[in-house]
């Protein structure tokens, strides 16, 4: 079960400026230490922690090396990872230069099984008023649509496909993703 909190907050900008609105965000659990993950993987696989640590380290190095060479690298049981970047667009080839790059990105594309697992996971929302008092609990009945980072422009809510920060505005483009979507200003 995913836990989400909806907190009543005063909106300071935008169309709802000056009003209180309930804003949802995931409840973050503690970050699991690498050692704990390795210990659990060793238990599940039946190999020693030392062997699992060596495999984990080697896999990390291979993924890093291949991804920085431009490959999309499979992460077993999870999906793929690749590097990309955001860059400003220019009108002519003579204007192309490294200074147009605004940020480098790590792009993770979950596999179907992981997306299905997320879609099937119940979401519990706890609502808190502006004073921090719990006022309601809701359990999800949504259809479990999972956003596809390769097709971010196909969001159900018509948004820009960029949740959790960042911007697709101005001369910076959205993720092209190689699938023909996006506005083509990003280079992956």
Task: Annotate the secondary structure layout.
Elements: E1 2-10, E2 20-26, H1 34-45, H2 49-68, E3 73-75, E4 79-87, E5 101-110, H3 112-119, E6 123-128, E7 134-139
Parallel strand pairs: 1-6
Antiparallel strand pairs: 1-2, 3-4, 4-5, 6-7
Helix pairs in contact: 1-2
Textual characterization of the structure:
The chain has 188 residues and is α+β, with helices and mostly antiparallel strands. Helices cover 21% and strands 27% of the residues. The protein has helices spanning 34-45, 49-68, 112-119, and strands spanning 2-10, 20-26, 73-75, 79-87, 101-110, 123-128, 134-139. A four-stranded mixed beta sheet has the order 2-1-6-7, with no helix packed on it. The protein is flat, with a radius of gyration of 21 Å.
State the end-to-end distance: 34 Å
> How is the biggest beta sheet arranged?
4 strands, mixed
Secondary structure category:
alpha+beta
User: What percentage of residues falls in helices of 4 or more residues?
Assistant: 10-25%
Spans where pLDDT lies below 50 across 5 or more residues: 154-187
Shape: flat
Strand order across the largest sheet: 2-1-6-7
Mean pLDDT: 82
The number of E-state strands comes to: 7
* Contiguous helical run count: 3
Which series of helices and strands comes N to C? Answer: EEHHEEEHEE
- Rg: 21 Å
Strand content: 25-35%
List keywords for this structure.
single chain; 188 residues; alpha+beta; four-stranded mixed beta sheet; three-stranded antiparallel beta sheet; 7 strands; 21% helix; flat; disordered C terminus
